[in-house]
Amino acid sequence: MSKDHGIATRLTQLGRDLDGSGVSVNPPVYRASTFVFSSLAELDEAWKTPFSGRLYGRNGTPTSAAFETAVADISGAHAAVACASGVAGIMAVFLAFLNSGDHVLIPDSVYDIARRCAERTLRRMGIEITYYDPAIGAGVEALVQPNTKLIYMESPGSGTFDMQDVPAIVAVAQKHGLRTALDNTWATPLFFRPLTLGVDAVIEAATKYIVGHSDAMLGVVACNEAAYLPVRMAVQDMGAVAGTEEINLGLRGLRTLETRLARHQASALKVAEWLQGQEGVRQVLYPALPGAPGHEIWKRDFSGASGLMSFELPPLADGALEAMVSGMAHFKLGYSWGGFESLILPAHPENRKVAVWKGGPVVRIHIGLEDVDDLIADLDAGLRRLRFA
């Protein structure tokens, strides 16, 4: 595929063998742990390219090679590494770039599970952690220590969708010879390509929009050339290989990713605009919404937005939030997001230590592929129940 082809064309054709006649539209699914060879010479030759997908299942299969090639292409990466989940990708990046005695900088708005991994595992490994205000931009330089090795980012941040000045942070990292990594799950490679701004490794929880149907756990890390082998070896050493069936679902999801995201984005913007004018909604936290926090950075660096957002409420009486969320018809209570269905959950920014949340309760919603007018009616009824309670 040429880089000159449009993204929809590339998503349709990447990771498929289109040569010859009578080939299947979808590549075959390789369910394999073991690949056999007819001679020792052939086995030795296979070791020269151990991650090509034809040596041992934990190193990958032709199915994972197809998925990784496709993700690398749309991400502008040297290569990509599939893994068992988004969290496996996060841990692979930490383990690839950090050793005992090193120091890492992590935004205070980071995904709760990433914080848990840092506190529960990195500290036990003797790695120092400093959480920083996601809005700090180039000011992160003041937090760099002699033993700092990695600046981790997530933009927008979980729960309150804080936008980070990625180019400014990357410039600081490059000045000091530090690695950078970024969780890009919200935007996907279609709407933000951090590698083109100098980020070393970009994590996608493919469980979300790439799979797109809430039926698989999958992660992938897109890397520049220097980061690729360390990340690949970390995934290999953890045994965090992605299952073949899950990778196949990721390939399937890539085919419709652009179409689905266009619908998620259009519906989400309409919901955000509606929420902005509702009684009791203090603010809508959705970077694509004009006037929302971080909108100018989003407009500068991103080419689109997904369907995940939050909104802030005033202090609530006991039982008010329960009355709202438990009576929803279309927004169901459930973790994750990025599938075809709409979801709702309380967010908990009050757990932050540096960028202290001083606002009211926050509700996170994922705008699915349902009719947007039905979703707005559901939210309207929920807000009325909340006000009544």
What do these coordinates show?
With 389 residues, the chain is α/β, with parallel strands linked by helices. The protein has a domain of 132 residues: Aspartate Aminotransferase, domain 1 (Alpha-Beta Complex), CATH 3.90.1150.10. It is 37% helix and 14% strand. It contains twelve helices and twelve strands. The strands form two sheets. The protein has a seven-stranded mixed beta sheet, sandwiched between helices. A five-stranded mixed beta sheet has the order 8-9-12-11-10, covered by helices on one side. The protein starts with 6 loop residues before the first helix and ends with a helix.
Mean pLDDT over the full residue set? 95
CATH superfamily of the domain at 257-388: Aspartate Aminotransferase, domain 1
* CATH-derived topology of the domain at 257-388: Aspartate Aminotransferase, domain 1
**What is the name of the CATH architecture of the domain at 257-388?**
Alpha-Beta Complex
Largest sheet: 7 strands, mixed
Radius of gyration: 22 Å
Number of helices: 12
Structural class: alpha/beta
> How would you sum up the global shape?
globular
Q: Which percent bin holds the helix content?
A: 25-40%
Order of secondary-structure elements: HHHEHEHEEHEHEEHHEHEHEEEH
Question: pLDDT under 50 segments (min length 5)?
Answer: none
- The count of DSSP E runs of length 2 or more, i.e. the number of strands, is 12
CATH class of the domain at 257-388: Alpha Beta
Name the beta content range. Answer: 5-15%
Distance between the termini: 57 Å
Side by side, the strands of the main sheet go: 1-7-6-5-4-2-3
